[in-house]
Amino acid sequence: LGSSLRGSLDKLQGKSRLDEDDVDEIVREIQRSLLSADVDVSLVMDLSSSIEDRALHEEPPGGTSARDHVLKIVYEELVDLIGESTDIPLEPQTILLAGLQGSGKTTTAAKMAWWFSTKGLRPAVIQTDTFRPGAYDQAKQMCEEAEVEFYGDPDEEDPVKIAREGMEATEDADIHIVDTAGRHALEEALIDEIEEIERQVNPDRSMLVLDAAIGQGAKDQAREFDDSIGIDGVVITKLDGTAKGGGALTAVNETDSSIGFLGTGETVQDIERFEPNGFISRLLGMGDLKQLSERVERAMQETQEGEDDWDPEDIMKGSFTLKDMQKQMEAMNKMGPLDQVLDMIPGLGGGFKDELPDDAMDVTQDRMRSFDVIMDSMTEEELENPRIVGASRVRRIARGSGKGEELVQELLEQHKMMERTIKQFQGMGDGDMQRMMKK
Ligand code: GDP
Ligand code: MG
Question: Locate the SRP54-type proteins GTP-binding domain: which residues (predicted)?
Fold first, then answer.
């Protein structure tokens, strides 16, 4: 799916403006990716209309390609929806964990404690789950692995009492993480219990722990827990599996909160602070979106601010000399192959590349270096007007550069081929250009 979104974006390469069909296609691909990542339908629809609106009505900043522009809009709108990471100050605090049984609360409690310990704070985990057999042993063992303080009482049946005694017993700790019991479904008993624990420990933050595979069930859970204890942040667990955690966005939206942590494995160190970029890239099934968009932008700036003030758009005007070719080759060294350089020229459709002979793109590093040496043996006049280079001049240049006559001929051929391609382009009217882009 990600590859078809990428495909649609790639079709925009070289375009400086988007039409409605382009935007339609991109938006459809984004919808498909998000829906398959379990993002709620109504969220997807809201998002689509914002992206559509902006992509069609906002003017791309000067020199920005349509692809770059739409990528940035998609990224910004998703960041807007998902939000920044839940603010977790590195100071003494109490955090209460809520969630259904098996969502990963106990594992997350130990992981978060480990995380705080790496920040130089002193955490303690308080286990109040008296419902699930083995809950005490599991939590105790994980806290040993995390090398953090632990409190629990396997003989006590009242979770509220454990919570109270646990807070007292660990009063020297900076961070109190209170783990709670889950149930298979939302039951009144569970809600009552967590409300009482919440009143007892008076947490600074209550976090909802959700399995990445949660899907649409996230909505009811988020609603219930938010109504009873107030949810300040979400933790998505099991992101090391295939599920992408899109359902958690529903919970974020429903509770008007944000995502704080991600669980990415079974050991206590498999925890990450949430960071929108990586999560969005994963949702869309694309590589690092932020980096991608920044890279395109940077490449364009370098092209435009190159030492020689050489702008790839210049080759679209006037004659294409050997000097242009040399600069083009230098640019290629910096930016990648010719076809990518061409992509950065606003107005060149992706279809154009298919029209080029394969050889036109085939300027290998070795050949480029040889061509450079050859051009050093050429006069200004020859560089500006390669047509005057006949057989005797070829012989002289070959001798002067120490390269064979054949290679000099190749250089001239290469130049002719590129010149022809560019001429063909300069001669095109807008209609031809449109037709070409549609291909
Ligand atoms: P609780 O019932 O909410 O306390 O959930 P647990 O912490 O006991 O976790 C339930 C199961 O999910 C356990 O087998 C955990 O090892 C597993 N688990 C929790 N978090 C993760 C995670 O991020 N990745 C993977 N692969 N497994 C996890
Ligand atoms: Mg548990």
Answer: 92-285
